What we know:
Elements: H1 2-12, E1 29-35, E2 46-52, E3 59-69, H2 71-76, E4 94-102, E5 114-118, E6 127-131, E7 136-137, H3 144-148, H4 150-164, E8 172-175, H5 181-192, E9 196-201, H6 206-212, E10 215-218, H7 224-231, E11 236-241, H8 246-253, E12 255-263, H9 277-292, E13 298-301, H10 313-329, E14 337-341, H11 346-354, E15 361-364
Helix pairs in contact: 4-5, 4-10
Amino acid sequence: MESLTKNENSIKGNTGNHQNVKHLEQTSFNTTEVIMPGIVEPEGLLVRTRVLSAPAAGQVSVKVEASGICFAEQSMRRGRYYEQPKFPFVPGYDLVGTVVATGPGVDATLLGKRVAALTKTGGWASHTLLSASDLLPVPEDIDPLEVETLIVNGITAWQMLHVKARIKRGQTILVHGANGGVGTILTQLALYAGVRVIGTASPRHHKALRAQGVEPVDYNDTDLAGSVLKLAPGGVDAVFDHVGGASFARSFGLLTKGGVLVCYAIASALKDTGNTLIPFLKVLIQLGWWNILPNDRKAYFYNIWDGKGSETFQGQLRETFAQLTFLLASGVLKPQIAARFPLTQITAAMKLAESRTAYGKVVLVP
């Protein structure tokens, strides 16, 4: 442990310039990590400490500075996330951290560099191993916790807006869950692009949404569609919906001619049981049917992992992430961090993230 402290302090004592670190004596570290042992309540999540092996060829060891809680982990602890690993495993969809060791064949100048990564699992740890090819460079002098909000949430928001919906200045969109991790970034990106934003949220968040320039609607409104149409009588140009079920059909009905529905989760299926693939297939069939109807409207399901393994996938992630970090550094994006928790308080962190009361993202700070 003494050499671990010594090596970590050598990075901290670098006056913020991570690029000057040339080597570290140590290649294995003690890591503290959260374990999801099975289908459990938040109280059932475990915390353990173990020795993390040295990085293999093509790998790096990363000291994690921040990892977020998103909808994926909420689904995983219920066994409802399609293609999740077998229990037990370490959750954590993304992370920001510093490279503290490199394996054979990896550029040694990565040592001391701050990086981000889209991981799907493994982020809820103090140290972890990553493939060097999956690293996203993080500019110096920006808050790593704010950067954390830009990985899965920011990339999702950017690509849904600009790739799937192809929004244009002067259009009007509806964002479900405008107070959430994806919603807060998505609304800011849309407003920056000159788009009018209507957002659903609990009334407790309406004041904050109005301050950002969003026109709020109560997500529990029994006539939500009617309330949206009062604000946009001709319908909206795009809807971004993570709710699923009847909400998808209602959202599609709110589209104006040429409008686009972008679905990116099925939150309504969290309490279901049985095969996790079936709800997803039903949604794809429904969206496909809407797309072949002669109604001049389109519907898509966004999956951040589409194209994984292709030559362009990582390049697109890097390009999108670079756009987001530039907007963060220039002050355009102001990430909303609902709360920060150490790994040892994972139960409280998970409960807050699932409460639907948080404004922004709950972040773990190992």
